[in-house]
Amino acid sequence: MDRDLKPNTLRSLAGAFLGFVFVMAIVAMLTILVGPASGADAVYRHFDREQLQKTTGTATVNSATANYANWQPLITLTPDPNHSLADVVLVLDLNQATTGFGAVYTSATINVTWARKVDGTNWRFETNKATGTISGTTAGAATGGLAVELTTPEAAPGEILACSIVISSVNATNVTIPFVVYYKAGAKATITAAN
Q: How many CA atoms lie within 13 A of 100 on its CB side?
């Protein structure tokens, strides 16, 4: 009888071990597919960001809703809670016909930069990435029209990223600024344009 117990015990141990290995493999695959747990110390893997995403839209500079004589967010990007953004490229068209910056603000200037809510609460404007001053006449059709491109390598879940502008002299006429955003992420970010 002892001889019969030993092979059964070994088989049971081997079965338990294989079951444990199988469960661990499933957990690892779910982490890859679903993404890591969120939180301050969560790790966001590079393979989460392989898919190229694209969003187009139009933002409105409206002096009734924000004081653009000071830095103001124009377009905000909020990453999905489980996916960071990589290789972010944002392009603004400054020469929309009739209602664009070059058409409306012929005697004003604009500067563009990124801003971040690193702590999720307070905007911090990145002066090292700010464009030079662009005049409305330079942005206008007489020069063929201008666009501005901003790039940034990363934005993690919990951060909020914004293309921000400041205009030297704001008037009551609304300005429309078309934009396109490209980035790599495992899920689409929430992109909100000022209006």
A: 21
Residue range 87-105: mean pLDDT, rounded: 93
Residue extents of the structural domains in the chain: 1-34, 46-193
pTM, two decimal places: 0.74
Indicate the SS3 state at residue 87: strand
Q: Which residues pair with 92 in a beta bridge?
A: 148, 179
| Class (C level, CATH) for 46-193 | mainly beta
Tens of pLDDT, residue by residue over 116-160, are 987 878 899 998 899 999 999 888 866 678 999 999 999 989 889
**Max CA-CA distance within the chain?**
100
Structure tokens at 69: 């004589």
Please name which of 152, 173, 182, 156 lies closest in space to residue 164, comparing C-alpha atoms: 152
Q: Which residue matches tokens 């499933």?
A: 26
Pairwise CA distance, residues 129 & 132, whole Å? 9
How far is it, in rounded angstroms, from Cα 90 to Cα 36? 27
